[in-house]
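Technical note accompanying the year-one report. For the benefit of new consortium partners, we illustrate the data format agreed upon in the data management plan: each record pairs a sequence with a structure-token string. No post-processing was applied to the example shown here.
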Amino acid sequence: MIRKGGKMTLTSSQQSYTDLLIKYQPKAITNFEEYNAALTIVEGMMSGELTEAETTIFDLLVVLIETYEAQHYLISEPTAAATLESLMHEFDVKPSTLAEVLGSVEQAREIVNGQRKADKSQAESLAKFFNDLGSGLSLTSKDFEK
């Protein structure tokens, strides 16, 4: 806003934001139809360069979508066994390879199958082992103690 003669006047950027508010009328998403409509708008906005006003509306719509998803599409934390199984598949690691990390093939199989939990030392060893295999990984023992 620009102050002119004691009055606040909208700049063109703010006017376009106001126009976008009128056009999209963003509000809390309360049902699946509103959710799909918001997704369609956001997907359409992703295809081009956005103005500052459009970016603000885009960010607002994304927050509304994420809020709806958090309330309606709960995603539980993966179990340690699921994390381990996924990493083994990704890096083509066999239980026999994990025997060196975990102490024995039997312990490795039991942990992979979710029949027993890794102890603190084993969890730390697993985190180090997989972090060494994959650059960019930042696993901790907590990823294998769930």
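Partners are asked to follow this layout when depositing records. The two ends are 52 Å apart (CA to CA).
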